[in-house]
Amino acid sequence: MDRPIKRIGVLTSGGDAPGMNPAVRAVVRTAASYGIETIGIRRGWQGLITSDFVKLDSTSVGHTLSRGGTILYTARSDEFMEPKGRERALTTCKMLGLNGIVAIGGDGTFRGALELSRLGIPVVGIPATIDNDIGCTNYTIGFDTACNTAIDCIDKLRDTMQSHERCSVVEVMGRNAGFLALYVGIAVGATAVLVPEHPLNFEKDVVERIRASRLSGNTHFMIVVAEGVGSAVEIGKRIKEEIGIDPRVTVLGHIQRGGAPSARDRETATRMGFYAVRAFAEGRGNCIIGTQEGKMVEIPIEEALTMKRTLQKERYQVMKAMQIGSHMT
Ligand code: F6P
């Protein structure tokens, strides 16, 4: 970048994630420490089109570390995906004198970032989604809090399933990925965990798991289903048809997206916010801040968008090994 950075915009886009507020706070305070002004763009990329902004400073982002959701609001903008929408967004950037944008969100947010960068506005991305499904980073802000929320809910479900000697089928979010389900499934000691990355063999993955658990003396069962596998209600029906027990189905849904961010999410978000602004201050841009092997890294947006994240084989094996009567071969 040829010109010194004087003013940047920050926005949150796509599905919200606990930790977005700490990331915004870190962007604003780091920018202030470099003498850079920050403008908050409300409602994601859509706000850049409609010029929906708020001036932010170190004081105005105070007391936001522990707040779930996003103080900047968020949206998924179809208009920004069209060249006309992006031209309007460019006009807003010029009008406000923005030298760069920090975009906090998931894959869709970064696709938008790439398009805007092609119009000459440098963008730095911060990965935030409870799905933890972004290729260029092994952690996305919000995942830890969502896991803890799901675990807390499932622990409570287990109490009542145990009292009534029932089977529980719980659907967790994750879009097309099984990271959330697998992590949560390991942490709650699920009878079975179904993820979209492994084609479902109902007899082996569900019926045999429940049967083995029953034969070992258990009278309640916990089946964790990633939403990408399909409807937990359908899984419940099949269990009833094939084993004769009458499961209770719970879809955790958007509750997983709320709540105060965990320590990990606050700390990671704060560091990512710092690294994002530092990149701009040192004359770099058009990258995503990721974590790889415990370190913060900058990955060029274009390259980042080609990277795929696959479900960890090792973690899947661990989950399998914890199941009663499982065989690794
Ligand atoms: O990407 C986050 C996520 O919560 C996914 O897990 C889920 O599939 C989706 O967003 C739900 O989106 P919406 O809030 O639009 O219903």
Q: How would you describe this protein?
A:
It contains eleven helices and eleven strands. The chain is an alpha/beta fold and 329 residues long. It has two domains: 7-142 and 261-306, Rossmann fold (3-Layer(aba) Sandwich), CATH 3.40.50.450; 144-257, Phosphofructokinase domain (Rossmann fold). Helix 1 packs parallel to helix 9 (263-281) and helix 6 runs parallel beside helix 11 (313-321). 42% of the residues lie in helices and 17% in strands. The longest helix is centred in the middle third of the chain and has 22 residues, at 143-164. The termini are far apart. The strands form two sheets. A seven-stranded mixed sheet has the order 3-2-1-4-5-10-11, with helices on both faces. A four-stranded parallel sheet has the order 7-8-6-9, with helices on both faces. The chain binds 6-O-phosphono-beta-D-fructofuranose.
Query: What is the molecular shape?
Result: elongated
Structural class: alpha/beta
Approximate helicity band: 40-55%
**How are the strands of the largest sheet arranged?**
3-2-1-4-5-10-11
Report the major sheet. 7 strands, mixed
Low confidence ranges? none
- The domain tally reads 2
Bound molecules: 6-O-phosphono-beta-D-fructofuranose
CATH topology of the largest domain: Rossmann fold
Query: How many whole angstroms does the radius of gyration measure?
Result: 22 Å
